[in-house]
Description:
three-stranded antiparallel beta sheet; 24% helix; disordered C terminus
Amino acid sequence: xxxxxxxxxxxxxxxxxxxxxxxxxxxxxxxxxxxxxxxxxxxxxxxxxxxxxxxxxxxxxxxxxxxxxxxxxxxxxxxxxxxxxxxxxxxxxxxxxxxxxxxxxxxxxxxxxxxxxxxxxxxxxxxxxxxxxxxxxxxxxxxxxxxxxxxxx
Length: 153
């Protein structure tokens, strides 16, 4: 049996570690300068904790903005908790790092995108190099790194 290095999963872990490091620093020191984050996550992912009314409004995916008003940012090895203001209603959230689809800091044109599709070897040839379909959520002018370009074909 041949053993392979799973670079895709290693990159995902490293990129989630980067998010953990950045959020830990923000929790300890606040947001520096013009930095702010758009974080899109899967609301169905196990471990996501959010109010029922928010889950009803965002049944698949939700994008949060960490910028002007946030409280109780706490980061652990699995994810982060934060209280955000939704229409003058503070709501606590807990988001596992594995639930994150995108992390963008438009102030410095930095972004990460986590692809969740599994590919068969036959699919790699057909889909390699294809761009994911654009969505209608504002993401700023950030560059997004897709891990698909690092997959072996």
